[in-house]
Q: What sequence folds into this?
């Protein structure tokens, strides 16, 4: 009841502000209702079967302030029902009445000549940077990633873009399973014990639509009295060469990350410190036809290093990257991610009309290092005797506007056929093949 009252007050306050600014402020948002079910599981320590209902309400206000500044505020209310102590629910699924964005922005036109601009953003914000494989505002997951600090965007008339940021990632709360199951409200934590800063430079290459992207990101974290960490101190350098899909053309997306630094072997304060040296590679080639339904066929490959024996940690850390757009659904499945993964795939995308789009994708699943835990599952065989073949995944999605720009249906379905590793590793769940279904109904306003 307290949450509903607070939500009503926030909505009323934003509406009154819009009227006071003579309708120059804009209020928008969406309400998503979701049903997820999973039959069988690849993750360790969770129910083999689950059915979860969840909701996500977003309210966003944008408008002018004074002297060329603009304001932005965005409220998230993410809740879930139907889970128990064995359900894979966490702060990734529940974040009640959180002001994820609350910032001010300033734009300067043509500071470097014709068609150039500069943008400055200060405060709480979400981030979608580059390919979104390292830093993203996750949209499929019931909650998103928020950051507090400063972001600067510079754009030159030649098409060159530079992004620089210095932020602290918001730690989503509550973290205890009991509080999550109770949908308990708790303000997210902003702390300098976690720090993220870096730059992304994008440069167009010639007239063929090719562009290169250069990424340098630093992530640092320290223990707090009530929140132990692995004291990660990571520098990630990435190079990307890509060409966006267009009808009648071939496209490509090749990206490689090199990750170095140090961390601790566990959360224990006396755990030994280790050097980090990890790698991630993404390669994708596609072609989109000009015919009806705009079919695009692509082949893709993802390789993320796993941890090898020895004093150096070679397991890649994807930090705040998204997974749904390329790898696998998040939500209560969240089994396949960019760690200890070797995965070739084929994808077919279709757009039957302006209101309907769909894809179906196949992936083979192998471990990059057979003595490390596979992807996000927690399944591990230190001896390596279970091999490196994890299985095959068939993934699909259908999105349909039932009422253009107002009401959309989304269906996500996945079948994961377990291979030898996921059936014979010592701690592998005993369930057989995995079937996942997610049904979303999204109302935008």
A:
């Amino acid at each position: 009841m307290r949450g509903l009252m607070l939500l009503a007050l926030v909505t009323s306050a934003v509406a009154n502000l819009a009227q006071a600014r003579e309708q120059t402020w804009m209020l928008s948002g969406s309400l998503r209702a979701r049903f997820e079910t999973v039959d069988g599981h690849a993750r360790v320590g969770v129910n083999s079967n689950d059915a979860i209902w969840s909701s996500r309400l977003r309210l966003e206000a944008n408008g002018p302030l004074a002297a060329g500044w603009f304001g932005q505020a965005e409220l998230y209310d993410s809740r879930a029902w139907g889970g128990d102590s064995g359900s894979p629910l966490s702060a990734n699924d529940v974040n009640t009445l959180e002001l994820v964005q609350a910032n001010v922005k300033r734009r300067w036109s043509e500071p470097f000549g014709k068609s150039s601009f500069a943008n400055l953003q200060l405060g709480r914000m979400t981030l979608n940077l580059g390919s979104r494989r390292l830093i993203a505002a996750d949209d499929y997951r019931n909650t998103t990633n928020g950051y507090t600090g400063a972001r600067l965007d510079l754009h030159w008339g030649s098409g060159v873009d530079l992004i620089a940021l210095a932020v602290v990632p918001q730690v989503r709360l509550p973290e205890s399973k009991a509080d999550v199951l109770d949908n308990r409200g708790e303000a997210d934590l902003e702390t300098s014990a976690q720090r993220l800063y870096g730059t992304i430079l994008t440069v167009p290459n010639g007239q063929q639509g090719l562009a290169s992207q250069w990424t340098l990101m630093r992530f640092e974290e320290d223990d707090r009295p009530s929140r132990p960490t692995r004291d990660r101190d990571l520098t990630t350098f990435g190079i990307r060469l890509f060409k966006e899909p267009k009808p009648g053309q071939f496209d490509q997306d090749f990206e490689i990350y090199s990750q170095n630094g140090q961390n601790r072997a566990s959360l224990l304060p006396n755990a030994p410190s280790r050097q980090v040296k990890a790698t991630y590679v993404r390669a994708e080639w596609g072609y989109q036809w000009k015919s009806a339904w705009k079919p695009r066929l692509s082949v893709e490959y993802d390789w993320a290093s796993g941890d090898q024996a020895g004093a150096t940690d070679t397991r890649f850390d994807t930090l705040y990257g998204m997974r749904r757009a390329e790898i696998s659904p998040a939500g209560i499945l969240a089994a396949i991610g960019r760690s200890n993964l070797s995965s070739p795939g084929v994808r077919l995308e279709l757009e039957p009309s302006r209101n309907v789009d769909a894809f179906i994708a196949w992936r083979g699943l192998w471990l990059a290092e057979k003595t490390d835990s596979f992807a996000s599952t927690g399944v591990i065989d230190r001896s390596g005797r279970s091999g490196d073949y994890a299985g095959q995944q068939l993934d699909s999605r259908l999105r349909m506007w039932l009422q253009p720009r107002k009401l959309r249906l989304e269906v996500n379905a996945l079948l994961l056929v377990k291979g030898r590793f996921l059936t014979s590793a010592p701690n592998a769940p005993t369930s057989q093949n995995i079937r996942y279904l997610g049904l979303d109904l999204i109302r935008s306003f």
Q: What stands out?
A: The CA atoms of residues 402 and 408 lie 5 Å apart. Helices lie at 2-20, 177-181, 420-424.
